Prior knowledge:
The protein contains 16 helices and 18 strands. It starts with 41 loop residues before the first strand and ends with a strand. The chain has 597 residues and is an alpha+beta fold. Strand 8 and strand 9 form a beta hairpin. Helix 15 packs antiparallel against helix 16.
Amino acid sequence: MSEKTRRARALTAGAGVAVAALALAGCTTTATPEGESNTGGTITIATTNAFTSFNGDTPEANLDTNGMVGYLTGVSGGLGLGGFQRLDKDFSVLNNTDFGTYETVSEDPLTVKYTLNEGLTWSDGEPINADDMLVSWAINSGYYNDAILDPATGDVTNGGTQYFSLAGSTAGLDTTAFPEIGDDNMSMTLTYSTPYVDYELVNPIGKPAHVLAEKAGVSEADFIELLKTLPKGDTAAPVAPNATLKAAADFWNTGYDVTAMPTDESLLVASGPFIVTDFTPEQSITLGKNPNYKGEMSPSYDQLIIRFIGDSNAQVTALQNGEVQAIQPQASADTLTALENANATVHSGNQLAYDHVDLSFGGVFADANVREAFLKTIPRQQILESIVTPVNPDAEVLNSQIFLPTEGDQYTTAVAASGYDAFTEPDIEGAKALLNGATPTVRILYNTNNPNRVDSFRAIQQSAQQAGFVIEDAGSPDWSSLLGSGSYDASIFGWVSPGAGNAALPQIFKTGGGGNYNNYSNSAVDTLVDESQVTVDADALADIKVQIDTATAKDFYGLPLFQSPGLFADNGSVTGVDYFGGQTGIVWNAQEWTLAG
């Protein structure tokens, strides 16, 4: 769940599983598939965060804008427009039957078969087949890993190898055997060791097999043969890393990160209706129509330009001036007023997202008393009233790390059990008593380009200093790249959920989880998290989540702040923009947009 997909991609369900210059240069368009209607033209929108990677499934690149591009091009490991499933406005699962189908072959053991449609190709013309599904499974299952990681540092402790670095988790994805590949190489069947709670959200399509094979220095056929013959990793008996698989994994982990438009066109290969055609760092990314896409979601317009404009007022000005046609700004009372004055059409609602303060386990916060003391100083009600209440007068301080107020009785039950509501107002005297005269230094990381995070930092700084804490400003515009770096003691950021599934639990709360940036480790919570991934009974699963929520509160993990309000707006020149509170934000139905008139 992230603005910081690092969801804010960040956080993805599925197999694995956040001011620009006005000029744009080098924009290109692609051909329209034969027989398809084309109204032509360009739609330009604005989002807050800049694009940094063509692989938003790693911890370092797990940002919302990266996830948006992955969703549209179909090469993320989660739900998207170029795989088996996507989400509808109400977060129900829509099957992309023009791509393929999946069926439950058996419930005991849980066995699921994925079948691709005939004739599908990647944007570079290479066929999409079971090779691609097998590679996606290999990446997301952790099948070949034989490393044991230190929960505090993430370092390998047994001489083994951790191949692919996932923002999500492999929890629940264990299979009884290697996948069964169909004779025609168009199907893959997975048999799970235990029931997997999110099996219907597994999308075994991500990066193309032929590209990763090329980066590993072998043919696709040889790469697939390697995956079929390489033994399952055994942490009790680690072996030397396989050089070919390691080369493929190293490229997957970092090779898609970019600071300029790639000259290597293989980084752009897509399976969805959109393909990236241009990228200007810190300014914009342009997506054209994938000429080899054969589904029903090809847009009627020629290209989509996503501009990166961090300042909400600048987004509104760009909308009013016609420089962009739709925006997804930071929600605030000032932004709403500006949009009303601009006569814009506003689409608003709650996001499946929340802002929170996390404490790093180690350093100054190794002492539970210091953690508790710091949490006692956080002025959550003040932060709520400053940031959210002007937009949503009915909003309340958030008292769960897992449930949101919009989830009704489940949220109420969690709050009653966890005790997070005891930290609504600061208790400076209680904090002083716990510190017993000590004056700990706390470095706080946050996004200096986000006004809401700046306001939260300042409120916490002012309050914590009253109890004796020395607060150091560790804020940075590059905050996301610093998460998990050990360069700070507390962090303020947001998680945004994809809207379906339970992959967030191991991602955030399990020892060594891909989004566990604060090195939280509790063996009892690890057990609960593992149980959550194989518990299909809804009531039992809800109880497990409440237990996890309660355990984090007792460990003084940090504090949730508020459920985030969401806001889109358009100037009437594009039709189809509709509010969606999930991870993909404003682009969730970009394939359906049309130019007005």
